[in-house]
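Support request, please re-run this one:
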Amino acid sequence: MTPTTGALDGILVVSLEQAVAAPYCSSRLADAGARVIKIERAEGDFARRYDADARGQSAYFVWLNRGKESVCLDIKAPEDLRLLHALVDRADVFIQNLAPGAAARAGAGTDALRARNPRLIACDISGYGESGPYADMKAYDLLVQAESGLAFLTGTPEGAARVGVSVCDIGTGMYAYAAILEALYERNETGRGRGIAVSMFDAMADWMNVPYLQYRYGGKAPERVGLNHPTLAPYGAYACRDGSVVISIQNEREWSAFCAQLLDAPDLARDERFATNVARVAHRADLDATIHAAFATLGVEELEGKLRAARIAYGRLNDVAGLARHPQLRTAPVETEGGTIDVIAPPAIDRAGTRALGAVPGIGRDTDAVRREFLGAVER
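Re-run finished. Output below.
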C-alpha cells in the first residue's frame, strides 16, 4: 500500500488534555492528518506516569499521543494564556477535559474561545456533564463503570467486576471524535463552528440501553452470567478435554445444526426446553450440562473443526499473550523517545493506501517552536 494524505490535513487541533478520553479523541484526529498541539502542564500529562512498560514509557501515553506536538503551558500565567489564545484564534478544533470549570476559570472556557473564533469547534469532555447533581464530581473510568451499572452487569454471579480496559474513557473519546467530524462537515456548509459537550456517564449510559430497556419495560434487569450471554443461549465458554471454546448460537437454524453435528442429537432441537432461545435461557443449566457432556471427550482442535464444519460461530478464550501472537493481529510502528514501538494498528483500513503513524512527543518538545510560530518570539 502507498502512503496517502490525511482527510484532515490542514486542520489545526488544540487540545488541553490529560488522561485518556480527550487524548483518545485527539489521537484519532492526528491519525486522520490533523495537526494536533497537545497542551500539558510543566510536569506533563499525568498519564505519562501510569506505568513504564513501553520501553520505559507509559503504555497509555504511547497509545494515545502519537502524532502530536507537546507544548507545556501554565494557563494561569498571563503569557501562557496569551499563547493559548493565539493558538485557539487560529485553530479549527479545541478540546479540553480538565476538572469541571477549570478551563473556564482560567480564561479558556468554550463560550469565551468561540466568541474569539466563531469558526472554532470546541469540545468539552467531562465526567457527568455540565448540569445536574453530579456535574462537579470527579470521574474516572472505574467510577463511571460503577455509576452507570456496567460493573454490576460484568463479572460472575458471585460478584461484580471492572471491564478489563478503560471502556468509559474510550467510548467517550469515540463519541467526541464523531461529533467533531460532524461539526467539521457542517462548518463546510455554514462557516460556523459548534460547541460540543460529551460526558463519560452519557457515553456509557448509551451503551447500557439494552439492559436499561429490559428493566424499564420488561421489569427485569439481566443477571451477571460471567462468560455467558444474559439473553442468548448457548452463548458462552464451554470446557472441552484440553481447553475451552466460546460458542455463539444466534438463530434456530444454527441451533438445529449444532444439535445435529456437535451434540449428535438432532431431536434435541425440538425439545420443548430448548426449542426457542427464550426456552433455552430459562433452562440454561440443563442446556449447559448437555453441552459440557458432549464436549468433554473432544480436544480443542477437534471441537473447532466440528464447529467450523457446522458453520457455528466460535472463538478461543485468549489471554493477552494469545492476542499478542494472534495471526489476525495487525500492528504499526510508532517512534518514541525510547525507540520504535509496535502498537496495534488503527482498525479502519483505507484501501487506497495507508498513513504512517506520527511520533510520540517528549514533554514540552515543541513549546519553543510553537511560541515562535504563534507569538513571533520565544518568551521567558
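The chain has a mean pLDDT of 93. The first strand starts at residue 12 and ends at 16.
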